[in-house]
Design a protein that fits this description.
Elements: H1 5-8, H2 21-32, E1 43-47, H3 54-64, E2 67-73, H4 80-101, E3 106-112, H5 114-120, H6 126-138, E4 150-154, H7 160-165, E5 170-173, H8 179-193, E6 196-197, H9 199-207, H10 213-223, E7 229-230, H11 232-243, H12 247-260, H13 266-275, H14 279-294, H15 299-326, H16 340-347, H17 363-366, H18 370-385, H19 395-407, H20 412-419
Parallel strand pairs: 1-4, 1-5, 2-3, 3-4, 6-7
Helix pairs in contact: 9-11, 12-13, 12-14, 12-16, 14-15, 15-16, 15-18, 18-19, 18-20
């Protein structure tokens, strides 16, 4: 599998980060003095636009100064209990590791995307977090003090909750990289990939991009996936194509190709999954039964297709949940093999009876909630429970029953008993 450019060229030291050089040096010096200067504010806020490298800079600097880093994404913080656990870990995690594996490094916490925590309101545990920080800042009791660095990352938002946090942190405001920084970075990547883009084409590309380095690299990777030489005409075509295809259409088009295109490459299928790791699997699941009915194969083969694809989706849900709960982001690179690539390989074994199949993209968005995931798990359970007796003509009826049971919060056990 080709490694994504955004991962392949991820900075391994702060010297490899493009843009904000002076500010990074200032932050570097500040973190280097934290252990020796107890008067320095240990709570740090790194703010700035998306894609400037806030989280990776925090990680690189903490590791450079020999901290043991525990990272949390605000989207995975579920209320006051999680906040208390984070603070508890920051105080006691180091002692436990030092005792059992002789790791005597100081712990540091990263709370990524703090602005997302603000949007969650009381459910996200924001009030509890602010209370702990304020108590640590004002109290003279050592037991109330947060003794290790906590780095928050956030977009530049004006919410009053972020204004409140600023009273108790040392803030470092990052800016978008300059055009010169972006061009230098891209030329370095293109040289290593042995891809030539004419200067005027590269300038045009930069002109039509935002300042999010991640998007710039991902879009360029997609553009170069089938070409090793790009001229101005090619770039103009790409710009025109991009303007006339919004993100939703690209998503639907990608799902359509995954289900029905027998000649699509693995690289393209990987890119389709990475468009949206949540919606792409849901859209595939919304439509795969319809495609199975259109395939030129016998009933036994259709049942096998149904079982295999349903099982792959179920495994994807389990892994996807683990990835987002534990921040195992590297595993996302392998997920296309049980979604877009896996589904495409299953379907390309058989020809379609009809060439023009209208896929459904509406239901999944009008019913977008947790019962969609439960629905998929129940389908998988039913297919295995009734494996020896199920017939293809029963499938639409079974799916309607399952959907009704999940929507009305019935148990999976009752569902299987009823179907038996």
């Amino acid at each position: 599998m080709n490694k994504l450019w955004i991962d392949k060229y991820k900075p391994t030291t702060v010297e490899n980060v493009y843009g904000n050089k002076k500010l990074i040096q200032t932050l570097d010096n500040y973190i280097s003095n934290l252990k020796d200067n107890p008067n320095l504010q240990k709570n740090i806020l790194i703010s700035g636009p998306s894609g400037v490298g806030k989280t990776i800079i925090a990680n690189l600097l903490l590791h450079k100064h020999n901290y043991r880093v525990i990272e949390y994404n605000s989207n995975n913080i579920e209320g006051a209990k999680t906040i208390k656990n984070i603070v508890h870990k920051s105080m006691y995690h180091g002692n436990i590791l030092e005792m059992f594996i002789q790791d005597n490094r100081t712990t540091a916490i990263i709370i990524d995307e703090f602005d997302s925590l603000i949007s969650l309101g009381p459910k996200g545990g924001l009030s509890e977090l602010m209370s702990i920080i304020q108590k640590s800042y004002k109290s003279k009791n050592k037991k109330d003090k947060i003794s290790v660095p906590i780095i928050f990352t956030s977009k530049l938002v004006t919410d009053k909750k972020l204004t409140e946090l600023r009273k108790y942190v040392k803030e470092f405001k990052f800016k978008s990289p300059t055009k010169k920084d972006i061009i230098t970075l891209l030329k370095n990547i293109l040289q290593k990939e042995n891809i030539k883009i004419e200067e005027n084409a590269l300038q045009l590309y930069i002109k039509h991009q935002d300042n999010d380095i991640r998007n710039i690299i991902n879009n360029l990777s997609y553009l170069c996936s089938t070409k090793n030489h790009i001229n101005l005409e090619c770039m103009n075509n790409y710009i025109h194509y991009s303007k006339n295809k919004d993100n939703d259409y690209q998503l639907y088009d990608g799902v359509h190709k995954t289900l029905l295109d027998n000649n699509i490459s693995y690289n393209d299928l990987e890119n389709i999954y990475q468009m949206d790791t949540f919606f792409v699997p849901l859209l595939l699941y919304e439509n795969y039964v319809k495609v199975i009915f259109s395939k030129k194969c016998n009933e036994k083969e259709k049942i096998k297709l149904l079982k295999n694809i349903s099982n792959d989706h179920n495994i994807h849900d389990i892994y996807h949940e683990i990835i987002f709960k534990n921040n195992y982001w590297d595993i996302l690179n392998y997920m296309p093999y049980i979604t877009t690539i896996g589904v495409n390989l299953q379907f390309k074994k058989y020809k379609c009876i009809e060439n023009d199949i209208k896929l459904n993209y509406k239901t999944i968005f009008t019913n977008i909630s947790q019962y969609n995931i439960k629905y998929r798990k129940c389908v998988n359970i039913v297919l295995h429970e009734l494996n020896t007796r199920i017939q293809m003509k029963d499938i639409p009826f079974l799916l309607k029953i399952i959907f009704y049971y999940i929507k009305n919060k019935k148990s999976k056990g009752d569902l299987v008993k009823m179907l038996k």
